[in-house]
Amino acid sequence: MQALLRLSQRAELFPKSFSLSGVEIGKVIVQTSNVDIFRGIHGGREVVLKRYRVLSQYQSNPLREYLFVKSMIREMIIWHNHRHPNLLPFEGVFQPDDDFEEAYLVSPYHANGTVVGYLEKYPSVERRLLLLDVLSGLSYLHRNNIVHGGIKGANVLVDSQGRACIADLGLSRLTDAQILTWTSIQSTIAPWGTLLWQAPELLSAQLQAQEHIPPPTTFSDIYAFGCLAYEIFTGLFPFAELLTHGLSSFQLHIIISTRVVKHGRRPQKPAVDSPACLRYGLTDSIWDMMETCWDRKVRRRPSADDLSKLPFLVDVLDDRSVQE
């Protein structure tokens, strides 16, 4: 896989075996500053197509366009070569005009949407099972020396059986080979989208305006997992109280970084009479798990394997149907 990454990025081409034809593009269902997500049809099944919008923004900057094409190729190849029940499958690339600007990354469509939307619709489901699903996918990535780099509720989907799967490997990287440096990726993809889930060691470098931003690690993935658990059990973003003040991205970045890095702040524990505790199953044990994920000493954070063995997760009954 490393050889394929080097070869494909040098040639600025992805393997022809990834190419799909006969894909029907439907309406846009999600838009962010970087991507457009479409529903579509391929082979008689509903699919999702992801197209990076930022590529067109970089056409006047050949270096950034070159780096972005490389990062797209990296995402395709890493995604294609890692398959697990709790990772969103990669089906291929659809290029109507053989142009990277019109390249769509294709994956199955999950009608349940993101884990956050799923829990809004089905608030009584067993949330611990969703944690286990994410930990299973995260353990698989980490065992294969892959750091995700963008764990958050918007990047976790739920399939028709109510099982969570990790999506969006756009920020993922190999931990055992500097095939594409994090600095290069940072120059093409702004970090604001994952700001609220970023570990203090990453925020610290940004706060100090260091020239070389450190890469995400398995430890920062675990910090982000703690924030995802917070989303799952509260229905709120971490530091949601700051999002109502109409702050700009830059202002929010400075405030979050200062609070997390300099003052050691973490998301607020809900009150005992909050919906999180009364309806959603948040317990002291689950909160303690989140706090271990947020440990300021990076190497004291548990691994995904360690977390999946916690008693309140081991004992949970999984009565969901088995996917064929």
Automatic annotation (TrEMBL):
GO molecular function, one term: ATP binding
Ranges where the Protein kinase domain occurs: 23-313
Alphabetical list of Gene3D superfamilies matching this protein: Transferase(Phosphotransferase) domain 1
Pfam families: Pkinase
InterPro entries, A to Z: Kinase-like_dom_sf, Prot_kinase_dom, Ser/Thr_Kinases-Pseudokinases
PANTHER family: SERINE/THREONINE-PROTEIN KINASE TNNI3K-RELATED (PTHR44329)
Protein name per the record: Protein kinase domain-containing protein
Originating species: Candolleomyces aberdarensis
Source species taxonomy: Eukaryota, Fungi, Dikarya, Basidiomycota, Agaricomycotina
